[in-house]
């Protein structure tokens, strides 16, 4: 609509320019004819007055046409600016229309994304469940490993204590054997001393018996 108005204004401007040009040419011809007529017919003053009025009218029309042309140029510039403005608005409206046309596609993509998010949430919950189960298994493995370490430590402790007990038994056996040997040696020494005492006493008794014919056995029994 604005383009057609602009074209009409341009055509009117061109028509006005061409009409002004024609009027100018006719005015020049009228002046030339006036001069010729004034030279040839000086007695027709009434015709000259009419012709002068005619020229003044055409001059006023020419001036009005120029003003109309300037106004048309201003209107044309305004129309151009208005056309650019509405062209910009139309472009924005077309962009908005294009974006509005893309809304169903966007909504479909949004629904697909929402469904994907719901599915991801389900996967996250399942993964969290598996992670908790894995944490439980890890705790059980740690407990089993701790038990195994405790069993190994207990076995090592039992082996150590068994070795210490064997060493202690060996020491006790050695000490017992040594004590037995010492006791046997002490008993043997006592027996030897007693035997020696009895031998000496027997010798004395024999000597006394041989000398006196009398034995003092009861007196010596109280010593042993």
Low-confidence stretches: 37-44, 218-224
* SS class: mainly alpha
Label the overall shape. rod-shaped
Strand content: under 5%
Q: Over the alpha carbons, how many angstroms does the gyration radius reach?
A: 75 Å
Secondary structure: helix percent:
over 70%
Describe the protein in words.
- The protein is an all-alpha fold and 224 residues long.
- Helices cover 94% and strands 0% of the residues.
- It has 3 helices and no strands.
- The chain has helices at residues 2-40, 45-212, 217-220.
- The termini are far apart.
- The relative contact order is 0.04.
- One of its GO terms (cellular component) is endoplasmic reticulum.
Summarize the structure.
It comes from Thamnophis sirtalis. By secondary structure, the chain is mostly helical. It contains 3 helices and no strands.
Key descriptive features of the protein:
224 residues, mainly alpha, 3 helices, 94% helix, 0% strand
Helices and strands in order:
Layout: H1 2-40, H2 45-212, H3 217-220
Helix pairs in contact: 1-2
């Amino acid at each position: 609509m604005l383009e057609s108005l602009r074209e009409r204004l341009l055509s009117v401007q061109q028509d006005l320019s061409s009409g002004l040009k024609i009027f100018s040419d006719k005015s020049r011809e009228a002046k030339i004819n006036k001069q010729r007529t004034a030279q040839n017919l000086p007695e027709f003053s009434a015709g000259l007055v009419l012709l002068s009025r005619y020229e003044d009218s055409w001059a006023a029309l020419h001036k009005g046409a120029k003003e109309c042309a300037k106004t048309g140029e201003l209107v044309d510039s305004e129309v151009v600016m208005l056309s650019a403005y509405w062209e910009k608005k139309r472009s924005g409206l077309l962009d908005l229309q294009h974006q509005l046309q893309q809304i169903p596609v966007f909504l479909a993509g949004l629904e697909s994304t929402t469904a994907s998010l719901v599915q991801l949430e389900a996967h996250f919950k399942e993964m969290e469940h598996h992670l908790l189960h894995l944490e439980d298994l890890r705790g059980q493995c740690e407990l089993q490993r701790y038990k195994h370490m405790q069993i190994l430590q207990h076995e090592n402790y039992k082996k150590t204590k068994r070795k210490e007990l064997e060493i202690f038994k060996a020491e006790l056996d050695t000490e017992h054997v040594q004590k037995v040997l010492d006791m046997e040696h002490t008993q043997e020494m006592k027996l030897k001393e007693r035997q020696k005492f009895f031998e000496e006493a027997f010798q004395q008794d024999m000597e006394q018996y041989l000398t006196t014919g009398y034995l003092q056995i009861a007196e010596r029994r109280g010593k042993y």
